[in-house]
Amino acid sequence: MPEPVSSEHDMYLRRFLQKRQPRIIGIGRQVVGRTKMGNLIPVHLTVAEGRTTNDHFFTGFLRDIRDATNARKALEAENAMLEGILSSSVDGIIVADENGIILRVNKATLNIFGYELESELVGANVSVLANSAVRRVHDSYIKRYLQTGEKRTVGSAREGIGQKKDG
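RESULT FIELD:
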């Protein structure tokens, strides 16, 4: 382990034995390890306490988490890029689940429909943005698409009349 962890190692064990306050022991956490070549790598460390009739010991379990860490960083970068696309688009973008419930909208959607906050739409049925004639049958479009895969409304481009917040 690199500093300061390596010089604090014995202190952690003493504190645990004296006060039974787990800081690492019994609690897994991510730390930095040092390879034989001196490279620092992320590892998940769990230390367990063990006892036999004659001995009291601690066992360290280390898991190399470089792949998981790299995958998380790649996912975070991808999410940041998608967030940039979503927020900079001049077209309205609405993400809804299979029941038509709005999960996410971008700023352009708010501007188009006269809403100020994303929270005004998230959790509502997407049909709230449709005119009253379409609103009544909107959920059937989603159901038909999910059942048949037919791209009549969902999955196709078409013009329609929306309804702004103020009616």
